[in-house]
Amino acid sequence: MTRTPVNVTVTGAAGQIGYALLFRIASGHLLGADVPVKLRLLEIPQGVKAAEGTAMELDDCAFPLLKGIDIFDDPNQGFEGANVALLVGARPRTKGMERGDLLAANGGIFKPQGKAINDHAADDIKVLVVGNPANTNALIAQAAAPDVPAERFTAMTRLDHNRALSQLAAKTGTSVEDIKRLTIWGNHSATQYPDIFHAEIAGKNAAEVVNDEAWLADTFIPTVAKRGAAIIEARGASSAASAANAAIDHVHTWVNGTAAGDWTSMGIPSDGSYGVPEGLISSFPVTCANGTYEIVQGLEINDFSRTRIDASVAELAEERDAVRELGLI
Ligand code: NAD
Ligand code: LMR
Question: What positions does the entry give for substrate binding (predicted)?
Fold first, then answer.
């Protein structure tokens, strides 16, 4: 049976994450090895020529699943018929820029993109926001798309999740595939909280295997939470291939489901679970099945975790209040 191609819109397509992402989407890693895709690349006018160059390279790969590439600098066209939208392009913080300026600059990108998604995307649209500040950019886009179910707007904390898996495997001398049920809570920022209290390593409770709260507080959590800054320091540019990989993982899991007995972390609109105010786009433990996700319920949250979750959620609330004041939501 011939399948209808899935339309995947990628913003910031000419950027460094875009370059690491597009070839993997086209080769079937995003949706599945039997799912044809059409790429819709959205850039600002100055980025269009570079996106054209990437499109030439995509052609040169002769990917059997890639059924078309179109390039736009108008969001209304870029999101036309989109089934999946990866919002990667964002305004980076530059020297002398205050936090409010950054939020305002990104509001100028994510508000019109949210409206364009609202007006032009397919009914089954799924949105992943990668561009920082990812959670609050997702909130801005969602607020501009009242006709799209709110839960279709998600923000990426899968990179943090993968970083935590890797650090925990290294500490315990195990392999990442032995580790299940790890959680990133809160914001994709230095306040995020990687939680191993419910995680299992080869079936044993991870916190008990580690049995070292000082390592957890002073090494594991800051290493994961500040990994983005460490990469920038080392590479002279922010993470790109690992961020693209996490975006692939996020959407693949959302569409194809979590493995039995495991969960993942996604930034999603809170329904009030775990004391996170309703509507904030915060990272939670989620299971996915049939193209939808559900927050894992009933986890006991100890004092160590509670303080840290609350701190990250407070930061999200501050960001929400700031964009509300700017009239962006
Ligand atoms: P980059 O600067 O290399 O590329 C960004 C691209 O976006 C550029 O080509 C630019 O022209 C384009 N762009 C800017 N405004 C646009 C708009 N309005 N519409 C369409 N395209 C637009 O940046 P990058 O390294 O690819 O990173 C992209 C974003 O991802 C940054 O905000 C970065 O901080 C963020 N990031 C997030 C995570 C995460 O885990 N959530 C991880 C790494 C990076
Ligand atoms: C990351 O976590 O690697 C990025 O969000 C860092 C950044 O500021 O772009």
Answer: 93, 99, 132, 163
Residue 77 annotated in ligand binding: no
C-alpha of 199 from chain center: 21
Spatial separation of the C-alpha atoms in residues 263 and 150, rounded to whole Å:
21
Q: What is the ipTM of this complex?
A: 0.99
Which CATH architecture fits 6-155? 3-Layer(aba) Sandwich (3.40)
- How many helices and strands in the chain, by DSSP H and E? 12, 14
Contacts of 35 (CB under 8 A, 6+ apart): 3, 6, 28, 65
62 alpha carbon – ligand 2 mean position (Å): 32
List, edge to edge, every strand of the sheet that includes 264-269.
Answer: 66-72, 37-42, 6-11, 84-87, 126-129, 153-155, 264-269, 281-289, 292-295
Question: Is 221 labeled as ligand-binding?
Answer: no
Amino acid at 215: W
Residue with tokens 């594991």: 220
pLDDT digits (tens, 9 = 90+) for 256-266: 999 999 999 99
CA of 17 to the centre of ligand 1 (A): 7
CA 303 vs CA 71, 296, 307: distances in Å:
50, 19, 6
- Does residue 15 have its Cβ closer than 6 Å to ligand 2? no
* Residue whose CA is at the smallest distance from ligand 2 atom 1: 228
Strands 264-269 and 193-195, by their bridges, are unpaired
Check the annotation: does 3 bind a ligand. Answer: no
User: Is 159's C-beta closer than 6 angstroms to any atom of ligand 2?
Assistant: yes
Instruction: Please give the model's pTM, rounded to 2 decimal places.
Output: 0.98
Ligand 2 touching residue 231 (CB < 6 A): yes
Read off the tokens for 214: 């000082």
Locate the domains of the chain by residue range: 6-155, 157-322
Active site (catalytic) residues: 188
Confirm or reject CATH 3.40.640.10 for domain 157-322, answering yes or no.
no
6 lines ligand 1 (CB under 6 A): no
Phi, psi of 91 (to 5 degrees): -90, 115
Angstrom distance (rounded) from CA 320 to CA 280: 8
CA of 228 to the centre of ligand 2 (A): 4
